[in-house]
Design goal:
globular, 7-stranded mixed beta sheet, Aldehyde Dehydrogenase, Chain A, domain 2, 5-stranded parallel beta sheet, about 40% helix, alpha/beta, Aldehyde Dehydrogenase, Chain A, domain 1, about 475 residues, 2 domains
Length: about 475
């Protein structure tokens, strides 16, 4: 008997569908099957599968967007954009697959050890098995960022999507198989509770690579589990939390800065590169807040299926309640509520709070929700000190007309991704992506880097 669990629409609390609870014996069987599978497709054939899948996703765009919205609460407007991003990511993965045959490098050099001139061949080849674990907030594109590069590289992958949003990943696999991907090239494990499933997957002795996107606590737990289980060391690619700061200096274009600040509410703030805190120089603070609040008033939030809605709900009611609690605590400590802090179930309003103390939980921790805490600063050095007192090094941004201040801020905070006069969350699918500190270990994602990470590199010297 196959046990199943309910996948719940966080806005309506209705059952969207049911997903399998993968039994422990079946988890081992799927991992073993993927490990034993040796990809029979050439890089050109894998590229064709990926391009055809991109076309099929385009055809099914509306259906996939509706599924994303129903299981995650992301508004349909942004779900459609998510599908567009996934199509681009599939196409980028195909492009990388097409170039793989050109990446074996042969070069000659003078050896320091022999009088001969050995020929060096750098060999890149698929790993035997990768495990990928994805979060709820990008149910399609994040999954594509894991399995697209794996397919391009020829590395079999076993994916565990979030237990909250497994249906989109399952739909994508069905499309891949319909486009002639061998079944054991991508297997999916679903179920709840997630911890024992993750434990079993990341300690499977034959795996080569684990790629994980999620919270810092879970990311560290996985690293410890992998290191202490007794297996050989494995490659680990964690992409963890953000807590990104957006700095607005006195010389900034205030209208532009206010528009950038609105990205704090994209995906209801449930992005690792969302603006989590806004640091505004004193001289421009009041004007900035006035313009930002006016723009926020125009953000329509509500039923995620409404095509006119700009922001849907959070993934659970518990998440929304936690955010409301953190905002209330920040107000108790002197913060001034400008807009929002209204909750109905999992739906939480776009919220602005001024005069926030940098030491409040709302600022120190990654708040995965549509909240824009404002901290007033004296200068760019003040902002640098606040950011560097934290643990996260994923992304940052600054609004200023002064390039020297922009470069100084960028060089001083050492984040993985930075925008000058743009939102910290801006990225292209193929570009390197990932942070430092509690945001990651320096390994990079993005399609190009992920394809490389999914290939084993060896050298052969011909003397």
């Amino acid at each position: 008997m196959i046990y199943q669990y309910n996948v719940i629409n966080p806005y309506t609390n209705e059952i969207v569908d049911r997903a399998p609870v993968t039994a422990p014996v079946e988890i081992d069987r799927l991992l073993e099957r993927s490990y034993s599978y040796k990809c029979c497709l050439s890089s050109k054939e894998r590229a064709t599968v990926l391009r055809n899948t991109a076309k099929a996703v385009e055809i099914q765009k509306n259906d996939l967007a509706v599924l994303i919205t129903k299981e995650s609460g992301l508004c349909i407007k942004q779900s459609l954009y998510e599908v567009d991003r996934a199509i681009n990511s599939l196409s980028q993965s195909a492009t990388q697959a097409e170039s793989l045959d050109e990446q074996d490098i042969s070069s000659e050099f003078i050896s320091h050890y022999t009088p001969t001139t050995p020929k060096l061949t750098v060999i890149t080849e698929p790993w035997d098995l990768a495990v990928a674990i994805t979060p709820f907030n990008h149910p399609l594109n994040m999954v594509v960022h894991k399995i697209g590069p794996s397919i391009a590289a020829g590395t079999p992958v076993v994916l565990k999507p979030s237990e909250k949003t497994p249906l989109t990943a399952m739909a994508l696999r069905r499309i891949l198989l319909a486009e002639s991907l061998p079944p054991d090239m991508v297997n999916i494990i679903t179920g709840t509770p997630p911890k024992p499933i993750v434990d079993q997957m990341v300690t499977f002795p034959k795996l080569d690579v684990v790629t994980f996107t999620g919270s810092v606590d879970t990311g560290k737990y996985i690293a410890k589990k992998m290191a202490t289980h007794g297996n050989e060391l494995k490659k680990y690619i964690p992409e963890l939390g953000g807590n990104c700061a957006f700095v607005v200096l006195d010389d900034a274009d205030v209208e532009l800065a206010a528009k950038i600040a609105l990205s704090a509410f994209d995906n209801a703030g449930q992005r690792c590169t969302s603006i989590n805190r806004i640091m505004v120089q004193n001289g421009i603070a009041n004007e900035f807040i006035e313009k930002f609040a006016a723009l926020t008033d125009n953000v329509k939030y509500g039923d995620p299926m409404d095509p006119d809605v700009d922001m849907g709900c959070l993934v659970t009611e518990e998440s929304a309640a936690l955010i409301q609690e953190r905002v209330a605590n920040a107000v108790m400590r002197g913060g001034k509520l400008i807009r929002g802090n209204i909750r109905r179930g999992a739906l939480y309003s776009p919220t602005i709070i001024d005069m926030v103390e940098p030491s409040t939980e709302l600022v120190v921790k990654e708040t995965f929700g549509p909240v824009a805490p404002i901290i007033r600063i004296t200068d760019v050095d003040d902002a640098i000190g606040i950011v560097n007192a934290g643990r996260f090094r994923l992304a940052g941004a600054i609004a200023t007309k002064n390039m020297e201040n922009a470069i100084k801020y960028h060089n001083s905070i050492r984040v993985g991704q930075f925008s000058w006069n743009g939102p910290p969350g801006y990225r292209t699918e193929e570009a390197p992506f990932g942070g430092f500190g509690d945001s990651g270990n320096g390994e990079k994602e993005g399609i190009i880097m992920s394809v490389r990470a999914m290939r084993r590199i060896r050298t052969f010297y011909e003397h």
